[in-house]
Design a protein that fits this description.
4-stranded mixed beta sheet, Glutathione S-transferase Yfyf (Class Pi), Chain A, domain 2, alpha+beta, about 10% strand, 8 helices, binds glutathione, single chain, Glutaredoxin
Amino acid sequence: MQLLGSSTSPYVRRIRALCLQYGLECQLDSIDIFSPEGREQLKEKNPVLKVPALIDDEQTIYDSRVIARYIMNKAGTRAFSWSQENLLTLVDAANDSLVTQLISIRSGIDINADNMFYGIQRERIADIYQVLDQEVLNGAFDHSHYPTICLYCLLDWAEFRELKTYRDYPGLSAFVAKYQSSQFFIDTDPRN
Ligand SMILES: N[C@@H](CCC(=O)N[C@@H](CS)C(=O)NCC(=O)O)C(=O)O
């Protein structure tokens, strides 16, 4: 399998970590999604113009959640429960808002501006971090399943990009401390 993506993307990292967890071979085809060449490759492989995209022989899959289902199917694992789907939706919504913030910063836009659009993103991120903190304390992320991988990739990436810190949240801080020595997170660290 070939994964079109970048080594810094939290959405790409979660798929790389999942493949490592299952011992499945997945080659990262690294692109700069904002360079002219990268955009050409994206247009050819994924019309959504986002990473990751998975290419497995003739089959191409868009979107990390669908790719995860595809990989779990290949590995013979059950799909997500409804509560796991909700955890993934929470993580994805916060991650999407943070990606919006990062692209805005790189476009020279002030994400702390007092306007409706950026106010909504800040509110969503803060509320979801609060909910996820509580979910961690309630034990929802005690196991190393796919939502756990996604939460770790979100928290570590937001910290790495200096967009939002998990350190103000006791549950999230304990969560990162628990998982940071996992080999599949060390092997996919965006700083390396
Ligand atoms: N729902 C998508 C989101 C993927 C995503 O937003 N990827 C970012 C990179 S971290 C991206 O490609 N952004 C480009 C853009 O928003 O134009 C997934 O889960 O795969």
